[in-house]
Specification:
The protein has 198 residues and is an alpha+beta fold. Helix content is 38%, strand content 17%. It has one domain. The protein is globular, with a radius of gyration of 18 Å. The structure holds zinc ion (ZN).
Length: 198
């Protein structure tokens, strides 16, 4: 999986893209999640990085960005777009960066959940009428935030009913057996030299 990239800090991960499509996105994907259905109309790109990243003391092992790069000066933006075009041939709708050293040591379940976590950030913009589309019929893309952001302390003190967002739903699914188990993952594994190598 990491053949020939000891030195560069960032390298395109074209095979991860194909694996993610085959595993999570396509209609006949082995571990299909319909929440990714809009991504069948998106262009995605994956990168490996060897650069460690932390935020507020937490290790960051994946990141999803909407493209083209925003919040930059003209030259910074043009330079970033040129770099991305050189890597991928064009600027995708979303760019997902994965920590290569984490991926090399995590288990298969952790890797699947990392990739799906980043794919879930690759959202479709929502309006009052529901999901938004462009004139061309293509979905309008947007970064999707986490379903739940709450303090454990609030749930401990006031219960799940008083907690923010989808905390209640999160607690309910946390009490169930995961839909994606070792058996399904091993099937995905069988079609995927990436995961066999991992
Ligand atoms: Zn996240």
């Amino acid at each position: 999986m990491f053949e020939g990239f000891a030195s560069p800090a960032f390298v395109p991960a074209h095979d991860v893209l194909q694996w993610a499509i085959d595993t999570f996105i396509d209609e006949d994907a082995t571990l299909l999640n319909e929440e990714h259905a809009h991504l069948r109309h998106a262009s995605l790109a994956f990168m490996w990085t060897t650069v460690p990243n932390t935020r507020a003391g937490h290790r960051i092992v994946g990141q999803c960005e909407i493209m083209p790069p925003m919040a930059m000066g003209k030259w910074q933006k043009a330079r970033a777009e040129q770099q991305i075009e050189e890597w991928f041939g064009s600027v995708p709708d979303f760019l997902i960066t994965l920590d290569a050293s984490y991926a090399a040591q995590c288990d298969v379940t952790e890797f699947c959940s990392l990739v799906e976590h980043e794919l879930l950030h690759a959202g479709q913009e929502m309006g009052p009428m529901g999901p938004k589309f462009r004139k061309s019929g293509k979905p309008t893309f947007a970064i999707r935030g986490h379903d739940v952001e709450e303090f454990v302390s609030i749930v401990r003190r006031y219960g799940v009913g008083a907690a923010a967002g989808a905390t209640q739903a999160l607690v309910e699914v946390a009490c169930r057996r995961p839909e994606v188990g070792a058996v399904q993952i091993s099937q995905a594994c069988g079609t995927c030299r990436l995961l066999r190598a991992a």
